[in-house]
Description:
By secondary structure, the protein is an alpha/beta fold. It contains 20 helices and 15 strands.
Amino acid sequence: xxxxxxxxxxxxxxxxxxxxxxxxxxxxxxxxxxxxxxxxxxxxxxxxxxxxxxxxxxxxxxxxxxxxxxxxxxxxxxxxxxxxxxxxxxxxxxxxxxxxxxxxxxxxxxxxxxxxxxxxxxxxxxxxxxxxxxxxxxxxxxxxxxxxxxxxxxxxxxxxxxxxxxxxxxxxxxxxxxxxxxxxxxxxxxxxxxxxxxxxxxxxxxxxxxxxxxxxxxxxxxxxxxxxxxxxxxxxxxxxxxxxxxxxxxxxxxxxxxxxxxxxxxxxxxxxxxxxxxxxxxxxxxxxxxxxxxxxxxxxxxxxxxxxxxxxxxxxxxxxxxxxxxxxxxxxxxxxxxxxxxxxxxxxxxxxxxxxxxxxxxxxxxxxxxxxxxxxxxxxxxxxxxxxxxxxxxxxxxxxxxxxxxxxxxxxxxxxxxxxxxxxxxxxxxxxxxxxxxxxxxxxxxxxxxxxxxxxxxxxxxxxxxxxxxxxxxxxxxxxxxxxxxxxxxxxxxxxxxxxxxxxxxxxxxxx
Length: 512
Ligand code: ME8
């Protein structure tokens, strides 16, 4: 049986999850669900990056400077609650302050040391705490960090260094040979130019910090947070604690990251793995960043959107749908509550919700709520297009395939006008039309399983079927045309997407 090991970045917990953090995790969740649906063994890892100076400062601000771990415990618990409420299906929520992670980091450090890739050197650099990274003068804008607009601190100390430049050629060769290593292609060019022209050895310990994992053999130094954080992907596979699990899950099949952290994932991380003698992850998907109503989402602008609140207002599936539909995976985009409301009214309530409602109502009316006799279908190519899009990490295109079916079905209703067929007693044509519509709805449900899991199960229930995960045969059977059994009872129930009070669609309906 093939396996799929997918990860998200581990998040800093100096604040609560924003819709940006939810975005990476939603994509990972959708892909995890897709591979589970296919019957593969899946491991989905997410969690929190806790050995960061940022978290320490947040603890100090919260009046918990003497109990940093207590602060982290509280925050990690709040992140876990949020992720549970959002319905994420991660197999592990990893925290880098956990014991098995410290163990993995120690083992990894020693492996890299043994290769001769760690040396002691003097570090003089400009450190941005916001980024947890050093900058060269040339990287700064008006002497400030380009991301955080703060003046970085000048730091001079004896540090351990990692011989990153030793891996320059090997990294370029790997990326050249595996065009899929960095997706999408636009990011690949960016990373190649960084590796070729800018990459230097990096300092991987701090003498000045008190929080973090101690350097093995030199307890006065703490391991640089990024060196420790990246190793979480190995810890989550079992490295350092469970060799059999690690052999099964490593290498990861997919790391999902935002475009802000690709240097770490596509240069530093693979070089670290090469040095430790471990295989590299198969793919790194760098998704884009989104703004909020055209502006960067930031605490100082006070425009950080809380994903849990949106999910409470609209439902988890609506948040998932919006993020995966509005933003082409890999590109930048904008998050706007107006756009979300528009898509809800137009695509979810009107197109999908209405389709289900009309088809089920007509089945009740003309066939006493039972599925009519089978007929041939018209799904040609839809599943192929859907699978290809999911495999190539174009979730937006997979949704496009689904919406094409939704629109074609609505169009079929208009063209065939079942109410006219009923009047004219065109029984065969009426039965064929209704079977095609019901069976297409069943296929739509299955395509939505990874993307809008609650909606998929509700729709299956309306069609008189069990939830997707209770399907007892090979899933390919569910994807075949004609599996909806004639004579089965449907269950219209409540609308999938109730009209919102005050929405234009609701007003239009009220006026008609
Ligand atoms: O970088 N649009 O953690 P972090 C899209 N701890 N994605 C966004 C976003 C936005 N506006 N804002 C945040 C770190 N993200 C490190 C990672 S991994 C070994 C260590 C997402 O809390 C995106 O995935 O700053 C980005 O890469 C991540 O949150 C950064 O989270």
